[in-house]
Design brief:
The protein is an all-alpha fold and about 60 residues long. Helix 1 packs antiparallel against helix 2. The chain is elongated. The model has no long low-confidence stretch (mean pLDDT about 90).
Length: about 60
């Protein structure tokens, strides 16, 4: 596997992976920047972790192709 295989701008999975990882970063920033109640914090954190996992899975698929 080569890391250079990640950069595939013509593949839609590449752009979905970028958006998901960017969204994870924004959600992680939201949990640290704003004082949310317990439920809001858990929901935002769960979405951030889910996005990060899905982005990692898409990166792995890109590296396999």
């Amino acid at each position: 596997m080569k890391v250079t295989r990640l950069y595939q701008p013509r593949n839609p999975l590449f752009w979905i992976m970028l958006v998901l990882n960017l969204l994870s970063a924004v959600l992680a920033w939201l949990t640290r920047a704003y004082s949310l109640d317990a439920l809001g914090s858990v929901l935002v954190t769960a979405f951030a972790v889910g996005n990060a996992l899905l982005g990692t899975y898409l990166a792995w698929r890109l590296m396999q192709s």
